[in-house]
């Protein structure tokens, strides 16, 4: 591991302006051990001391705290207060040495409210990495998108009641950004997350390929990433480039991103055009910058003919390179457009009221809003996209759960009665868990995959 750290630090020889930081935490870490650490002042002090010693030893420029869900996923309600104490003590220890202190934080309103004193994040951190992705995926029961900028007009409270426990109104990039701003995170400290991957579903059948249709579960794992329900751009671009792939594609004028489907799977993902939209949106909000997850999901070997690192280069060009002055968004309008003139017609008269054209766009409000209807965009390929009018299937009947299966943390468990099924345990709030029995998807030849507990995935 020390050699890997050194190879990373040595990148400064190629770019002396490079900042190298170490990140601690991650989704799979949960909260339990971090909650225990921040609760005890002595252990907290020991952690701070060890962090400084680690940065000294390996010549990192700072620490990024990736404890994403304080107060949930095995944490305690006191985490919110104790997280601030940890930041204060790290800040005090780091400042004399000039070390940076940053954090990655959740995009979900419920987690934000339970976990973070946002004005303190603003005060104590050098910047905040907001993970504006993973809003929807194969862990949901219904088709959607991993990182929608806005929600569609029909994605309202009524649809949420029809498709529990879906949350569309709070689960968008725009809502998350505006919510953090409204709570006191300044624009010059907010880093907006950009995904280099998509999340996918296995379709119920070839006809159920529309947004909000019910799905079987996660799409099969890719051959590179190996994680069910997740496909990196390096996998997707190769799949799309096959002449016999059977993929259909369309771009959404609200999500400002594409989604694609075959007769078997549906993926809400990103491409170069959607990243232009996301960075243009970021610039319209005057945020500090962007972070990406993750570099290994880019086509860094140029397998798809767009050059090495096509997504990373798009982000860089929009922020600092040849397109730094561009606000281009090929999938729609990053600014809510002015509503068209309102015309009312009767049998005898027509009354028209026209809204004056706007002047130069101003910074959008920080209060979360629902964007007005932008003009439709042209699908990215010839196949006819599915209708965007949502279907309203009845909520699925929950699979009975054995009384001896108890969730205590996020993860997956084997289902003893059928090797082709598994349990998924998800935290949905403080001390609240959802247990779902899911089937393994079909393999490429049509055979159903088998759950492997050691691998924690469906495989052959």
Automatic annotation (TrEMBL):
<dbReference type="Pfam" id="PF00704">
    <property type="entry name" value="Glyco_hydro_18"/>
</dbReference>
<dbReference type="InterPro" id="IPR001223">
    <property type="entry name" value="Glyco_hydro18_cat"/>
</dbReference>
<dbReference type="InterPro" id="IPR001579">
    <property type="entry name" value="Glyco_hydro_18_chit_AS"/>
</dbReference>
<feature type="compositionally biased region" description="Low complexity">
    <location>
        <begin position="343"/>
        <end position="357"/>
    </location>
</feature>
<keyword id="KW-0378">Hydrolase</keyword>
<dbReference type="InterPro" id="IPR029070">
    <property type="entry name" value="Chitinase_insertion_sf"/>
</dbReference>
<dbReference type="InterPro" id="IPR036508">
    <property type="entry name" value="Chitin-bd_dom_sf"/>
</dbReference>
<dbReference type="GO" id="GO:0005975">
    <property type="term" value="P:carbohydrate metabolic process"/>
</dbReference>
<dbReference type="InterPro" id="IPR011583">
    <property type="entry name" value="Chitinase_II/V-like_cat"/>
</dbReference>
<dbReference type="GO" id="GO:0004568">
    <property type="term" value="F:chitinase activity"/>
</dbReference>
<feature type="compositionally biased region" description="Pro residues">
    <location>
        <begin position="358"/>
        <end position="401"/>
    </location>
</feature>
<dbReference type="GO" id="GO:0006032">
    <property type="term" value="P:chitin catabolic process"/>
</dbReference>
<dbReference type="InterPro" id="IPR017853">
    <property type="entry name" value="GH"/>
</dbReference>
<keyword id="KW-0326">Glycosidase</keyword>
<dbReference type="GO" id="GO:0005576">
    <property type="term" value="C:extracellular region"/>
</dbReference>
<dbReference type="GO" id="GO:0008061">
    <property type="term" value="F:chitin binding"/>
</dbReference>
<feature type="domain" description="GH18">
    <location>
        <begin position="1"/>
        <end position="322"/>
    </location>
</feature>
<comment type="similarity">
    <text>Belongs to the glycosyl hydrolase 18 family.</text>
</comment>
<feature type="region of interest" description="Disordered">
    <location>
        <begin position="329"/>
        <end position="401"/>
    </location>
</feature>
<protein>
    <recommendedName>
        <fullName>GH18 domain-containing protein</fullName>
    </recommendedName>
</protein>
<dbReference type="InterPro" id="IPR050314">
    <property type="entry name" value="Glycosyl_Hydrlase_18"/>
</dbReference>
């Amino acid at each position: 591991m020390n050699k890997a750290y050194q190879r990373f630090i040595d990148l400064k020889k190629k770019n002396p302006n490079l900042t190298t930081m170490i990140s601690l935490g991650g989704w799979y870490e949960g909260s339990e051990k971090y909650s225990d650490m921040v609760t005890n002042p002595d252990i907290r002090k020991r952690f701070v001391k060890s962090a400084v010693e680690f940065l000294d030893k390996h010549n990192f420029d700072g620490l990024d705290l990736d404890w994403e869900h304080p107060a949930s996923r095995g944490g305690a309600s006191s985490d919110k207060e104790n997280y601030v104490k940890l930041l204060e003590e790290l800040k005090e220890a780091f400042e004399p040495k000039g070390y940076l202190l940053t954090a990655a934080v959740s995009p979900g309103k419920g987690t934000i409210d339970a976990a973070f004193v946002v004005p303190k994040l603003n005060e104590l951190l050098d910047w905040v990495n907001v993970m504006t992705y993973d809003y929807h995926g194969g862990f949901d029961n219904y088709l959607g998108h991993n990182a929608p900028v806005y929600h569609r007009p029909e994605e309202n409270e009524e649809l949420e009641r029809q498709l529990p426990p879906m949350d569309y109104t709070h689960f968008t990039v725009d809502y998350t950004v505006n919510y953090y701003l409204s709570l006191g995170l300044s624009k010059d400290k907010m880093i907006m997350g950009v995904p280099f991957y998509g999340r996918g579903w296995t379709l119920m059948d070839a006809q159920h390929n529309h947004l909000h249709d019910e799905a079987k579960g996660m799409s099969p794992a890719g051959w590179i990433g190996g994680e069910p329900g997740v496909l990196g751009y390096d996998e997707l671009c190769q799949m799309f480039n096959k002449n016999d792939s059977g993929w259909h594609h369309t771009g959404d004028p609200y999500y400002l991103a594409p989604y694609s489907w075959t007769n078997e799977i549906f993926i809400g993902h990103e491409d170069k055009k959607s990243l232009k939209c996301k960075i243009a949106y970021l610039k319209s909000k005057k945020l500090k910058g962007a972070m990406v997850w993750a570099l290994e999901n880019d086509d860094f070997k140029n397998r798809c003919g767009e050059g090495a690192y096509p997504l990373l280069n798009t982000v860089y060009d929009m922020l600092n390179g040849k397109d730094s002055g561009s606000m281009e968004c090929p999938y729609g309008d990053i600014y809510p457009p002015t509503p068209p003139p309102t015309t009312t017609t009767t049998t005898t008269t027509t009354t028209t009221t026209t809204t004056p054209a706007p002047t130069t766009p101003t910074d959008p409000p920080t209060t979360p809003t629902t964007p007005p209807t932008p003009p439709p965009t042209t699908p990215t390929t010839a196949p006819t996209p599915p209708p965007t009018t949502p279907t309203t299937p009845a909520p699925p009947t929950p699979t009975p759960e054995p009384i001896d299966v108890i969730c205590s943390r996020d993860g997956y468990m084997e289902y003893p009665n059928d090797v082709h099924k598994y349990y998924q345990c998800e935290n949905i709030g403080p001390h609240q868990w959802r247990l779902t029995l899911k089937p393994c998807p079909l393999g490429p030849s049509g055979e159903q995959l088998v759950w492997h507990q050691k691998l924690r995935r469906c495989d052959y």
